[in-house]
Design a protein that fits this description.
Length: 369
């Protein structure tokens, strides 16, 4: 007990003995100013890193030491009078301790909010490449990230929106901490998506994150997770994040399927979209003639898309399109006649497939260019 009391500076008890003495003599409750002063002491204790438990213990110990000397207790006659006086003193102690705790908790809440605001600002700067790399790297150390090494980013999205208090966020965070510890891995949210940043030399972390996202989505619409490639430095985190977002965008536009998307497997898409003008020219030249077909180009473009997605197996493509094999064959022949390119010829098939990918990227023929 003595060690605990010594840990709290003496001035935390300034005025406390006088308050108890007056309360025991008059039976009054603590005034607003007295409560305000106790709250201020609680806030101060939180700022100075003292434990609330020890602060309360000091006040209770002081109450016990002062008890025999309190006027209302020492000078009371009769059991009833002593009981009423003791009840009033204990009520005052309860008020004082409650005010201390309120001030302490308020200071902690403000500190948490300041820390969360700083964390959110850091994450925004990191993912969007704002600020000096040296400054970002220094701030990253606080959150367990050593940006001198490579890092990769995984982004998960679902029908709903994720935030820091979402049940899925908590569940996945607990799983990551339990498996890999609190260092090196940063889990956060951004624009309603769940974001995981991990060292590039530990790909198992992001793979585990993707597995957890699949597990928590069982029985409902499953989240989709995209994994960016590892890159070095603060700018590397932003680049990996953008790769993951690009993969999710491709999935949203039905260009790729799957619940787990890996940017390393989708490198052809950035190549194809690097020169938009050239891609638009390819689509217009190769697929433009399909606009002359009855019903327009869209049904035939979709036929090619499904046919290539089925590995150019006519029976499987017909099943996916809910067509007979004969009807599918007719469509392919019609495409050949209009475009002059044969889907069955390896070289011409490559040209057609590239043009179909470009059409999806450019949202053609729904959107002209």
């Amino acid at each position: 007990m003595a060690a605990a009391v010594d840990a709290i500076p003496d001035d935390y008890l300034d005025g406390y003995a006088e308050i108890l003495a007056e309360v025991s003599a008059t039976g009054r409750r603590l005034t607003r100013d007295e409560l305000r002063a106790r709250r201020a002491l609680g806030e101060r204790a939180a700022r100075e890193g003292l434990a609330l438990r020890e602060l309360v213990r000091v006040h209770l110990a002081a109450t016990r030491a002062l008890w025999p000397e309190l006027p209302g207790v020492a000078g009371a006659f009769g059991v009833r009078q002593v009981g009423l006086t003791a009840e009033g003193v204990l009520a005052a102690v309860e008020q004082a301790v409650d005010a201390l705790a309120e001030g302490f908790e308020r200071a902690q809440l403000l500190a948490v909010r300041r820390d969360e605001a700083a964390r959110r600002e850091f994450i925004d700067d990191l993912l969007h490449g704002r600020g000096e790399p040296g400054s970002i790297s220094a701030r990253a150390e606080r959150y367990g990230l050593r940006l001198a090494h490579t890092h990769a980013v995984a982004v998960a999205e679902a029908a709903g929106s994720f935030d820091e208090v979402h049940a899925v966020t908590r569940r996945v965070d607990d799983a990551l901490v339990g498996r890999f510890g609190i260092r090196e891995v940063l889990l956060t949210t951004k624009d309603g998506r769940l974001v995981c940043i991990a060292p590039g030399h530990r790909p198992e972390i992001l793979e585990y994150f993707a597995d957890r996202m699949l597990a928590v989505g069982a029985g409902e619409e499953r989240p989709r997770t995209a994994l960016g490639r590892p890159h070095s430095g603060a700018r590397g985190v932003m680049r990996s994040y953008e790769e993951a977002l690009s993969a999710l965008e491709l999935a949203d536009r039905a260009l790729i399927d799957g619940a787990v998307l890996r940017a390393a497997e989708l490198l052809v898409f950035p190549v194809l979209t690097r020169d938009r003008e050239a891609m638009a020219d390819l689509v217009s030249t190769v697929l433009g003639p399909l606009a002359a077909a009855r019903g327009g180009a869209e049904p035939l473009v979709r036929t090619l898309d499904v046919y290539f997605g089925a590995g150019c197996v006519a029976a499987e493509a017909a099943r996916r399109l809910s067509l007979s094999v004969r009807a599918l064959t007719y469509r392919l022949e019609r495409i050949h006649a209009l475009t002059g390119s044969d889907p069955a010829d390896p070289f011409q098939r490559y040209t057609l497939q590239t043009a179909v990918i470009g059409a999806r990227l450019l949202d053609w023929p729904a959107r002209d260019f």
